[in-house]
Amino acid sequence: MALSKPRGRLFLKYVALFVTLVGGALLTSGLVEIYISYQENKTALARIQREQAQAASSRIEQFIKEIERQIGWTTQAQWGARAAALDQRRFDYLRLLRQAPAVTEISQLDPSGKEQLRVSRLAMDVVGSQADFSREPKFLEAKSGKTYFSPVYFRKESEPYMTIAMARSGEDPGVTVAEVNLKFI
C-alpha cells in the first residue's frame, strides 16, 4: 500500500500534464481558428463593400448620364426671333422639369454669362434678371465646350444637390445650367 500512493501522485501529475498539454493545444488551435475566421470575414466584408460601392457608382453614373441627356435636348439650337426663342426655351425648360423630377431649377445664360431665364420648382420663374455668372466655373467650363459637374452641396443642410452646365449652340448660344437634386438616385 505504501507503494500505491507515490504511483497515484505520479499518475495525477501525468494526468495534469496531459490535460494541460491537450488543453493548451486546443486553446492554441481555437485561437488560430478564430484569427483565420476573423481574417476571412474581414476579407469577405471588404469584397462585399467594394461590390456595393461599384453598384452605387454605376447607379450614380447612369443617373447623371440620364440627367445630362435630358438637359442636352434643351441645349439644341433655337431659331427665330429672340423673344420667340426665349418663350420656346421656357417651354422646353418646363417640359424638362415635368419629365425629370430630379431637376429643380434650370437657367439660360447668354454668351456673356448673364442670366436670361430661370425656371424653378422651388421659386418664381425669372426672365431677364441679368445676374452675372461670367466668372463662375459653371459658366467658364461649359463655355469651353465641356459639361460642368459641380461638387455635391447640400440645400437645407439635408438634400444633396449638384449643378450641371452645358453649352448651347445656334443663333442664341450660351450656357444651360441645371440644379439637380441627388436624393432621386
Description:
Strands 1, 2, 3, 4, 5, 6 and 7 form a seven-stranded antiparallel sheet that branches. By secondary structure, this protein is an alpha+beta fold. It has a domain at 63-184: PAS domain (Beta-Lactamase), CATH 3.30.450.20. The model has no long low-confidence stretch (mean pLDDT 87). The chain has three helices and seven strands. It starts with a helix and ends with a strand. It has helices spanning 4-72, 82-99, 137-143, and strands at residues 103-109, 115-120, 126-127, 148-149, 153-155, 159-168, 174-181. Helix content is 51%, strand content 21%.
List keywords for this structure.
7 strands; rod-shaped; seven-stranded antiparallel sheet; Beta-Lactamase; 185 residues
Shape: rod-shaped
Low-pLDDT segments, ≥5 res: none
Radius of gyration: 34 Å
> How much β-strand is present in the residues?
15-25%
Number of strands: 7
CATH topology of the domain at 63-184: Beta-Lactamase
Span between termini: 87 Å
